[in-house]
Every structure is written in C-alpha cells, then in structure tokens.
Amino acid sequence: MTERARRLAAWALVLAVGATVAVDCGNDSGHVVLPSAGSGASLLTPVPSQNTFQLPPCDYPKKVAFPKWVPRDLPLPRSIYATEVLPSTQGYRRGLFVVRMSLQDFVKFVLAEWPKKGWVLGRGDAEQGEADDQFTRPPSVGAFRAREEYCKPGFVLLLLIYIPDRSKIVLPTSSPLLSPHPSASPSA
C-alpha cells in the first residue's frame, strides 16, 4: 500500500469514527445532542422525540500497576492507566486500559503518533462507539480494540494485545485445524 493510500485509509477511519457519534463538544453540560430528522443525518437511525439526554457521571475502573510488557516506544496518551492485566494467550500479552479522552481523539492520536515511532497500522475498523486495528514493527505485533464508554466526561476502555516477537507465538497442538493428518471421512 502506498503512503498516500495509507493516509487516505487512516483519514477514512477517523471520519468513520467521527460520523458514528454526534456529541455536542462545545457543551460542558454532559448532554448528548442527537440530530433532528431534518438535519440531513441519514446515516443515523431515527431519533426519539427528545433531542438530548443526561449522561451519568463516569464510574472509572480501578487502577492497577502498569504492565511492563507494554512497549516503551509505543506512544500512549498521558491520560491512560491500566485497569486489568489479563492472562497471556498463545504468547500474546493482554491488558485493559482506561484512556480519559473521546474515542475520536484516541483514534486521531494513534493515527498521528504511532507511525512517527515506526509502528505500522493495519486497515482498521470502526463502528459506532468502537474502533480496532492491528499494529506491527517487526518482529513485534499487536492489536487493540477501543470502546467508548458513554458517561460524563467519558472515557475509552482499551484492550491492548501484544507480543514482542511473533516468531515465538505458541500455537495449540490439539486443534483439528492444525493437525498434519486429515481426519477420516465419516462412514455412511
């Protein structure tokens, strides 16, 4: 993929994330403002008769020690903290993190800062309130899924998956998909 195509794909991801959430950012009241039926917002489903609703205050998850396996040269927002270190799976290290910013701002941060440190992003995917992507810098590889938590002032719950050397991936040996011998066909 050319540099220009990669940048266009990155901006498409930012625009997709931005189009999924209609929040009145200039309003400190914590109200989410939904577009009216006549606003031309055809990508959104019809809105209820009430235009705004009050977001509950955020109930932030507890903080835990920041895991040492997170690459030091993977740029992370200053507002991030670890909330749960999950067990490794097939050599991949995993953790849940809280990022005190909007999903759109987090995606913009990733797209702007990670490539500066040599991390190559995948194609990415975004849906309403969620974005995910993979990243690599040989021999390491990782992925993230970021989910927006709707509360006042809001935050992102981030699942980060990482392995420093993909050649050390541990594959299960009991999987029928990985078996070197085809299984016999069932008899009729």
Summary tags:
single chain, 188 residues, alpha+beta, seven-stranded antiparallel β-sheet, two-stranded antiparallel sheet, 2 helices, globular
Structure, explained:
It is a single chain. By secondary structure, the protein is of the alpha+beta class. It has one domain. 15% of the residues lie in helices and 30% in strands. The protein contains two helices and nine strands. The strands form two sheets. Strands 3, 4, 5, 6, 7, 8 and 9 form a seven-stranded antiparallel beta sheet that branches. Helix 1 runs antiparallel to helix 2. It is globular and about 50 Å long.
Along the chain, the helix and strand elements come as HEEEEHEEEEE
Shape: globular
Give average pLDDT, whole number: 76
What is the multimeric organization of the chains shown?
single chain
Number of H/I helices: 2
Question: Strand pairing plus helix content: what structural class?
Answer: alpha+beta
The main pleated sheet reads as:
7 strands, antiparallel
Helix content: 10-25%
Uncertain segments are 12-51, 175-183
Strand elements, count: 9
Number of domains: 1
Strand content: 25-35%
Determine the N-to-C terminus distance.
49 Å
Radius of gyration: 20 Å
Structure summary:
This protein is an alpha+beta fold and 188 residues long. 15% of the residues lie in helices and 30% in strands.
Question: What's the structural blueprint in terms of helices and strands?
Answer:
Elements (H helix, E strand, L loop, with lengths): L2 H18 L10 E3 L18 E3 L25 E10 L2 E8 L3 H11 L6 E2 L3 E3 L2 E8 L2 E10 L5 E9 L25
Antiparallel strand pairs: 1-2, 3-4, 4-9, 5-7, 6-7, 7-8, 8-9
